[in-house]
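EI: anyone free to look at a 485-residue chain?
SC: sure, send it
EI:
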Amino acid sequence: MNKGSIARRQFLRAAAGGAASIVLTRKLSWAGALRQERIFRKPNLVFIFADQWRAQASGYAGNAQVRTPNLDTLAAKSVNFSSAVSGCPVCSPYRASLMTGRYPLTHGVFLNDVRLNTDAVSIAQAYNKAGYETGYIGKWHLDGRDRSAFIPRERRQGFKFWKAMDCTHNYNNSSYYADANIKLKWSGYDAIAQTNEAQRYIREQAGAKPFALFLSWGPPHAPYHTAPEKYRKLFSESAIKLRPNVPKRLEAQARKALAGYYAHIAALDDCIGEILQTLKQSRIENDTMLVFTSDHGDMLYSQGGQKKQQPWDESILVPFLLRYPAAHGGKGKTIAMPINAPDIMPTLLGLSGIEIPDTVEGTDFSGILTGVEKSKDDAALINCPSPFGQWRRDRGGREYRGIRTRRYTYVRDLNGPWLLYDNEKDPYQLNNLCNKPEYSELQKKMEAVLSKKLKQTNDEFLPGAEYIKKWDYIVDKSGTVRYTN
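SC: here you go
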């Protein structure tokens, strides 16, 4: 039995025995309580996130078409948040919430290609203060309009080790910067090269100071057909089975896109396997929190839509696995309670025994993850403060606010209630219950929950133009910040 499991059992026995001195609060997490008992060891953190990997695209989630044997193995030994939500489901807003634990209308990054300010204590700064080494590898997408520009140390939100580029989707000709303003190249398919660099970092750090490493991949985001050939050969367009919410007129496009999308996923699953093996070989797998997730999903023609920002499950739900044997005994379990992007930072800090900064708005769910607290019947706020890009107005885009509970989705736009789904009875969201008399009580209840969430987050739900004006962003007629490469 590892030391983490012993520590957890000792703590649970103490709690069950009425150890009133151990109280879990925002400031004192599960790990903080263990530290008071002097039986806590600072865990390492390896946080891996892909770009545009929807929750439905893995074997452990029930998709038999994808090839994710390493993720499926990881899921069997992890806590699986089956209703993990990307609250503002688009690249830069999610990443800003991950870095700060704040909601988009607080940190101001509700559009792509605007720069995240330094008003909040970042997750890297919190780990630095606790004595950790911190590192970031891969896609950043928080520095503003010039996606290929050098990002100086003062704009890296506290990360010490750095091999990153703001944004590129040219996965086979991908660049990055380290400390100097010298553009370097990843060899071959960038996700594999970035994974190799993460392995090197882990081996070097293992056994020294605790570390927090973030590995950010560009795939499976489009272009879909650029994975290495051996992975593309695994998937035939004609064999792809579609979700029932893909309109018939778009079936051919959907099959073509999904074949490439699944090829990227197969490549990334092999990368996951490499990280798992490196942690094991370095003898730190039991002392390391390993997280796998994504910044948002991908419609892939479900509901007739493409890409992200939209309030349906293919866009807002993401995979979220967390393996940390000391916290959950190394056995897999599923938590259906939604966890949102701003909740990630406080939850990880809570598991690490690190004080949560006052600038954080999200919730620390470490007590629920460890089983010390009961799961809540909570709701995650979903929102699009100002539509842009693929979700621009002439393509059906609109401002919205909504909630995703473990069972229901409720959304309203500026004109009033728009969507209401019972996701248990209608998992493909084909039957909109909104404004139907027989569901008026349910709608009223969901509206009350949404109104409470908006009040808690100081969200007045104004037209997008008001927020663009407030933050002084320059956009084109479609509401999009134009960027350069």
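EI: The first strand starts at residue 44 and ends at 51.
SC: 👍
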